[in-house]
Design goal:
Elements lengths: L2 H7 L2 H38 L5 H30 L8 E3 L5 H14 L6 E5 L4 E4 L18 E5 H6 L2 H13 L1 H4 L2 H20 L6 H40 L4 H31 L2 E3 L2 H16 L5 H4 L12 H16 L11 E3 L4 H23 L13 H10 L3 H17 L33 H21 L2 E5 L3 E6 L2 E2 L4 H10 L3 H10 L11
Parallel strand pairs: 2-4, 5-6
Antiparallel strand pairs: 1-2, 3-4, 7-8, 8-9
Helix pairs in contact: 1-9, 2-3, 2-8, 2-9, 3-8, 4-6, 6-9, 6-10, 8-9, 10-11, 14-16, 14-17, 16-17, 17-18, 18-19
Length: 541
Amino acid sequence: MSGIGTSEERGAPGARARALAVLRVRSRALAVALLPAAVAVVLIAGGVTGHMGGGSWDVARWVVSSFAVVVLLAAAVVGAVIVRARPALSPTVELTESAAPDLHRMVRELADRLDVPAPSAIALTPDCDSWLEDRSHPGISKAGRRSEAAPVLVIGSPFLWWMRVAELRAVLAPVVAGTGPSAHPDIAAARRFVRGLDAAVAVAARPDLGPLRRFAYGLVGAVARLLLRTCRIHAAEMERGVAAAASDRAQAVDYGLRIVAQEQVGLAYAGWDRLLTRVALPAWRMGRWPSRLDAGVVSALTELSRRDRLAEGFTSRLGERPACDLLEEPGTIDEATSLLAARLFHGGPAETGPDWSPVDWQSYPEEVVDRKWRTEAARLHRVLDTLGVRRPTEPEGPTLARVMDHLAADDSETLAAGITAEVAREEAAAPSSPQNSQPPDGGDELWDVGSVPLFPLQPPRTGRDLLADHVTAMVCCAAVDTAGAAPGLDWLDGPSLLVDGERRGDLGSRVLSLVEDGDAEPLRGWLASVGVRAEKPVRLV
């Protein structure tokens, strides 16, 4: 026996034993459902043969037989819901072989080296993770019936743009190796059973059910939850065994390179998180979605590596072939995953429109940063008008001086509360706002991505945070209009102000002194150093 097979067997037998334990839970549930029918058969047979005759036995036969029919009907309903309920499906972008022939070829060659079945398909997800996903359910498979095909390989799209080809192959090796244990009939059956229970619980929790259906599905959900609790430990240990077997088998393929590549996985995660929260999120809130997020993550990670020195040998590895070269049209795939990221993390609509359109990185400073600043500055002055704060008579138009004078002379709590209320009102009125949308239904629509974010990036901001953002926006508008500054994009910090072509990152503490303490002197000194004239009017949206 080869060394690969020997190492794999350390995890595979445990996974199969746990799979059998899961299936025994299913068998016991079936036995419990059949037990009343078995007792009824015994009683009926006893009556026919004359061994159990008489009034009391007749009553027992009718009672047990009626109970058995009810239990069998209930078991049939529960079983039908478990079998027919559509399991959760991760939203992904499918990569056909024509769209990525080199990637499909690399994965097949990797499967051959590992001596496991090749994944049935490849899909991308806008996240820093990779996994195998079973899509054999009739409601998912294109054939409309249960498929025996291998699982689908889901790859995190940032990996394709940041990693080199050899690094990606090394990182995917343990994932692809998981198709081997997944093909075992007992493991596959146990996984289908657990996923069916999960889906049944989700169906029972649908909010659109009527009273009668809610009661019926509530009973189904209770049974499914009981079975899930019973087999939860076995299912978790089964998955650990499968992962151990896949990891052992993958050690024979690029093991040394995989250790190095794991550093790039952590770096990709850090850069992707910063890109989404600092760069993409402001654009999404403005009704624009960056159409090249994966290309942007390369710039973000390059900057992160330069600043924090997180990647050793960074310059030399950039000379190697990037994994995105395995795609025929990287730009088209990047655009599709970028739109999916916006729908997942922000809750934007599925199609572009006047209020939801793509933006490229070259246009980002003018179309997102400058517009964001002027929109927030205009909102700030509207709230000041609502509070009755006096406008200056000369010159005409909104000025930074009006904002600074009010914050220096008055408590900022009222202004912060007004800003918070105005933001909430505008978000509730927006057509694509998550607050103005219905959540995805259960069942067949459970994981269809609608306008509700499945994975919100940030918790709600406090009133002081919002006020500081709006004051900063007003300062930036004044700097652009009166001092020749320009909006810019920092790949790690998002919207930024450029003065003489250089990023000025020292504004935040000055604004906080004004907002929190009413101290305007630090900000006045900063304005003087840049040449901003606070008494001059600015252009707002």
